[in-house]
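Journal club prep — side note

Before the paper discussion, L.F. wants everyone to see what a predicted structure for a comparable chain looks like in token form. Sequence:
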Amino acid sequence: MPIRIPDALPATETLESENIFVMTEFRALHQDIRPLRVLILNLMPTKIATETQIMRKLSNTPLQCEVELLRTSSHEAKNVSAQHLDTFYRTFDEVRDSNFDGLIITGAPVEQLDFADVDYWDELVEIMDWSTTNVHSTFHICWGAQAGLYHHYGIDKHELPAKLSGVYQHRVIKPSSPLVRGFDDRFYAVHSRYTGVDEDAVAANPDLEIIATSDVAGLYIVKSVDSRRFFVFGHPEYDSDTLRLEYERDVKRGIDPDVPVNYFPNDDPSREPLNTWNSQAQLLYTNWLNYYVYQTTPYDIERVGE
């Protein structure tokens, strides 16, 4: 949250130059406040775990959010009960006439398929198009980020030599961005995917800017210049044991997976993993929700998208 100090105080210019959020007295006096409406399009098969992880991040801020859950009607979920979906989730037809301050599109374990071969691709495209007029800011995660870049900017994904799984060191490319306020110059983030996006193609697009990347894992945070779309290629919402559960699942399937990088102490899967990414992950969600949703969304939600 911002600090409110007199406009002419000498500290104002200094703090703003250090990327500290300072709210002017004029803005503070004229700011209207209401709960934020956030929609989560949950494409993960582990729906209950994913909705819990993301809501944990959203709840750990001083902002009040009204969260709704969205599912695709063109895909039959197999890992969650129909009762859970019917009780807590809505379909696109039920929300298409509504406006939201924020939309989160999760990842999905379909990155090895061509986009057009995903059974709910057409529905997802419709939702992404709808978000340009009915959502103030959209946050895409992992495969959801790849899908968003492909649909909105024509940048395709490519197959990696092997699954990228682990906790990797990243560096902030644009430290002046409010999205990475509070980040260390070097920080750790989780990745778990089979595909990637060419960094040069993103850098060449004038409508996009790279915020953070990794020499090993590649792109981590990309945003549109107009701050309407955010693309995060890792999994900042992951719990401490999520990579372990994925690794153990793949072992049982006989896939013979590599041990997730920088995750288990001494790369020993029998030991308890250390969480080294939670602080930046929370900051990422908090900064997005505060600076790019709460601070800029219209007070009259019907004006979202204008």
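L.F.'s comment for the group: The first strand starts at residue 3 and ends at 4. Keep this in mind when we get to the figures.
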